[in-house]
Amino acid sequence: MNTPLPNNGVDATSAAVAPPIDNHATTATAATTQNLDGLGPNNENDDLPPLDTMTEYGRPHKPDVTYDKLHLYQPSQLIARRMYSKQSCLPIVLLCMSIGVPSCIPPDDMENDDCYKRALTGGKGGMYTKTQLIPTNKTSGKKYLQKELLRRAILANPPLSSLPQPASHSIKTLVKKLLESPPPEDEYEFIVGVIEFLRDNMHRHFQSHSGTAEASLNRNMHFIEVLMDPSIKQDWLERGMQKNRLVLDAQCGHSEQCETNNHLHSFWDKATVLYNDPKKSYKSRVFTAYGRPYDKSVTIHPVGEDFRIQAESLRKKYTDSRGAVDKLRVNLNASGEGEGSYYGGDEVRSFASTQQDAYMYLVLQDEGQVSDFAQSFDKKHSASSSHTPKTAGSGSSSKKQRQGDTP
Fold it and tell me: pTM of the entire structure?
């Protein structure tokens, strides 16, 4: 039963026990509303909680401010931008807000959504528990649904004559009422935008930290894109060349450490920095003929902390990969038009053992580096080599890179 609200929409029982409102704290309401309302979901200032404290309980998005205390706040303090803070709130708060928004996933389907399922997985690929994410979970869901129901009732336009009393409502009933009374339409854009940000963050975390085949594919795609990164492309092309002393001294500035004249080491150091960079991501290349997952560009996420490696390990990863690329090259050339031919996705698919091998070959083919990649520059020069450092571009013509493999 709903209780008629006297005065400012506060029921008689609550009015008798309500704590005093800090009037001094409410004086900045209009100004702070104006400052916050213009922020988009990805603005870094959205991470800051609302600036004004309205009651002795603190800001309304705090967990200890339960649904029966929301009537102590002004409606402008309960808008979605203020009630959800990425730093202070669990995502279950946001997903409760999304109930009834047309483009959002219905609450009963959230546990079956691939993105949310990954976020709930055990191990380092997961981010949350059901009590932190799913509004319909029996342990913590009810209190968040109750609070969202009251928030919407207070923001209702036109105002309601009485507020709902959800203390005895089941989770099913609360969800039904929220679906029947969506949040204000002017909140839709904010809610949808922040959910997209949340889901992208979940996907990035899963791809960077989990040990699944999907995450392994992401790391292998990241590996080959790092090796072909434009910022170290010249180092890649010159990784097997020796340089004269003047060039080495100019590059290194520490000739004592360069006595081996081994330029290969500097390339792998640079590549390792890129590979381990937590902010370094790539857009995958599109190979329509190959089909999924290469028929559209997706984000190749950075590797997680547990998968970062040293330069020697990255070099070994390259050495191990050469065999797969060389096998693909030989088989394709034997079945096709010979060395230097360009092969489509279907042809590569028929010979590749794994998705990562196929993507690696297609990227190298794009870069004109298939033959170069398959050759072994990962060895020290033989004892018969001259002790006189060779300059870039020297050597017999038979060992020069094929013209078809030059980027």
Answer: 0.62
